[in-house]
From TrEMBL:
Keyword vocabulary terms for this entry: Cell outer membrane, Lipoprotein, Membrane, Signal
Pfam families, per database record: YfiO
Span of domain Outer membrane lipoprotein BamD-like: 45-229
Taxonomic classification: Bacteria, Pseudomonadati, Bacteroidota, Flavobacteriia, Flavobacteriales
Domain of life: Bacteria
InterPro entries: BamD (IPR017689), BamD-like (IPR039565), TPR-like_helical_dom_sf (IPR011990)
Name this polypeptide is given: Lipoprotein protein, putative
Organism for this UniProt entry: Croceibacter atlanticus (strain ATCC BAA-628 / JCM 21780 / CIP 108009 / IAM 15332 / KCTC 12090 / HTCC2559)
């Protein structure tokens, strides 16, 4: 009986505390007292940072309060802290579109802040998190790389440099794969001239690519297929061009992954060219 009474008392107290907390939040939202909104918003933010239960709910409440007072605190001593925790609340909620934008604003508004490096990195990290898979439009990937490059230039020995390097490498590989797949798609859809041009551009842009052998080979194969599917008066000239691409492939990959297929096509080219001797 005593335990049952204590349990009832505990839940009653918990309900009162929760109701009081919600009531305080609702009152602050409707109140014109910006100092109260600031104090309560910072309290919610710090509770979430300290590992309180349901931290996302705390960040959301903090954001709602911060949104109401940000303009009034611009230029005031608390404005810098407010702008940072506002951006970081979105970051913690994984709302990276808004956190990237808000951290970017922070770096411009407070370039001398002690937290400007962290803000610059988190802005870049936000755009990195928003980068889609390689098959989709890569505008956000380009933006993330621009932000990371700015971080590298501004903080060459920064505290986040190792993580930034890992992210930049990953994003670069994504763009690399995207460019390769575009060129490959031209090849597979029998658009051989655009394929050759795309592979050419790819090899210039990504000279150390892990797809380098395949790019050189498929550039050759595109030229070969273009040649043998051309009008008779163009075949010889285009076969010679294809052969020069093939020679370039063997220069680097005599025993490469695609060398067997390359040798088969080499024999076919030589046989076809004999008809023009």
């Amino acid at each position: 009986m005593f335990l049952q009474h204590m349990k009832h008392l505990f839940f009653t107290l918990l309900t009162i505390i929760l109701f009081s907390s919600c009531s305080e939040y609702q009152k602050a939202l409707k109140n014109d007292d910006i100092a109260k909104k600031y104090e309560l918003g910072i309290s919610y933010y710090e509770q979430a940072q300290d590992g309180a239960k349901r931290p996302k709910a705390k960040y959301r409440k903090a954001i709602k309060l911060f949104e109401q007072i940000l303009p009034q605190y611009r230029g005031k001593p608390q404005g810098e802290k407010l702008a940072f925790v506002y951006a970081n609340s979105y970051y913690e909620l994984e709302d990276y579109f808004l956190s990237g934008y808000q951290f970017e604003r922070f770096t411009k508004a407070y370039p001398d802040s002690d937290r400007v490096e962290e803000a610059a990195f988190k802005s870049a990290r936000s755009y990195y998190e928003g980068s889609p898979r390689y098959s989709l439009d890569q505008a956000d990937t380009d933006k993330a790389l621009d932000k990371l490059q700015l971080y590298f230039v501004t903080y060459p020995e920064g505290q986040f440099i190792e993580e930034a390097n890992v992210m930049a490498t990953e994003l670069g590989q994504k763009l690399e794969k995207k460019a390769y797949e575009i060129a490959k798609q031209y090849h597979h859809t029998e658009n051989y001239k655009p394929a050759i041009e795309a592979f050419d551009n790819y090899l210039v842009d990504y000279p150390g690519s892990s797809y380098r052998e395949k790019a050189i080979y498929y550039k050759f194969e595109s030229a070969y297929l273009l040649a043998i599917n051309s009008y008779d008066y163009l075949v010889e000239e285009r076969l010679l061009v294809a052969k020069s691409y093939l020679d370039n492939y063997f220069k680097y990959y005599q025993d490469g992954e695609l060398s067997v297929k390359a040798n088969e096509l080499k024999a076919d080219i030589e046989e076809r060219l004999q008809e023009y001797s």
